[in-house]
Amino acid sequence: MEFAINCTRVPLRQGTRPNGIPADVGPAPALSGPVSDHVTPPRASIDGDALNLNRRVSPDGEDTLNARTLGSLGRLEELGANAESHGIDIIAVQEHRFYHPDNILKYHQVGSYQLVTSSASKNTVNSTVGGIGFLLSSKASDTLFSIESISPRIMVLEIDGNPKTTLVCVYSPHNSSVADEIENFYATLRSTIEQVPLHNFLVIAGDLNARLGPDETKFTFNSKTNRNGEMLKDFLEEFNLYTSNNSFMKPKDQLWTFESPLGDRAQIDYLIFRKKWRNSVRDSRSYSSFSSVGSDHRIVSATVKLSLRSSKKAKPHPMKMIDWEEVLSNPDMSKQFTIDVYNTFQSLSTSEIDAENIEEVYSSLIKSTEEVALATLPRRK
Question: Which residue ranges run through the membrane (predicted)?
């Protein structure tokens, strides 16, 4: 199973390519243009994240990416092309900046992919900001069980399977936001995670605008924990979760996920899993593979190995195996079937049917019809 998560500014791909060769590593370019929700001038507040899913029973990668905006000419198409070239089935996207307040969810065709978005919003100067969503390959769409917008900053996607996979795309307020805003975000996130069954394979991916320092996690790019990092730490402890891209010893250039216009770097994008699945997550790091999308975030990926069982399918009703098209096209067969059903029903003794009990009469008629059909009519080839 492969996951890829994409955040407000496009993160670079983390993980391996379909042939097992690591994706290229390098710095994401610092972009000019509108400042995203991650940055609060003049102080740069650093944050971001994205997710990818391939339902294979072999090692899979999970990616997180921050897109900054997909409205610019060619950016959305470039995102789809990169996802296809790296074999990514699902990317969680933040800050796409598509504004559609009249539609809870909107579907955008991107080549063979489909982008499902929750609307961005307008700020005080009427600029479009934020917006989250999932980019899905045709394979991911075929296994999609449900997708729901919880809030402008949280979306939940479920992939069918045994166990089910629940993917949560998140986009946290930046570190300098008012306390109520960040507290409301985590309150909504907590209530969302509480609804996810404990046996589901859970992945939380996105732009968390949080720095975790060495006092909070063993392998980190950050020198200290910021306020959002404290909130994230408490959330992880409450739900027995951990960040995969802080769990493996990596060089510094494989840890950072965001680069500010001034060149400052930080690790603020995360892939989060339940600790019960820790042995299934084999690797996690940042990549620069999506730099052509034009984001100041890199994509974060995790290699996951799961043995997925097929969901049990109910056996079809025997009557559905009858070739009814052949029966309808053959008048003699249809007439004989009607006569046989009538005779079988009439042969039932009056002691077996209470004429005053219409439900019993109906049940007997259905039983007679099924018995005659299964005994005399042709089956579908």
Answer: none
pTM value surpassing 0.70: no
Domain boundary among 271, 305, 339: 305
Q: Say yes or no: 266 and 347 in one domain.
A: no
Cis check for the bond before 173: say yes or no (omega within 30 of 0): no
Residue 151 forms beta bridges with which residues? Answer: 154
Inter-CA distances, 211 with 178, 215, 217, 225, Å: 17, 11, 10, 5
Q: Which amino acid is at 63?
A: D
Number of domains composing the chain = 2
Calculate Rg over the CA atoms of the chain. 27
pLDDT tens digit string along 334-354?
Answer: 888 888 888 887 776 555 555
372 within 8 A of 333, measured Cβ to Cβ: no
Strand 106-110 with 90-94, pairing: unpaired
- The answer to whether the beta carbons of residues 240 and 10 sit under 8 Å apart is no
Tell me which residue range forms the domain holding 197.
2-11+69-305
Regarding whether 250 and 102 lie in a shared domain, the answer is: yes
Q: 305-312: long-range contacts at Cβ-Cβ below 8 A with a sequence spacing of 24 or more?
A: 305/58, 305/59, 305/60, 305/280, 306/1, 306/57, 306/60, 306/201, 306/280, 307/57, 308/1, 308/55, 308/57, 308/161, 308/162, 308/163, 309/161, 309/162, 310/161, 310/162, 311/160, 311/161, 311/162, 312/162
CATH number for 126: 3.60.10.10
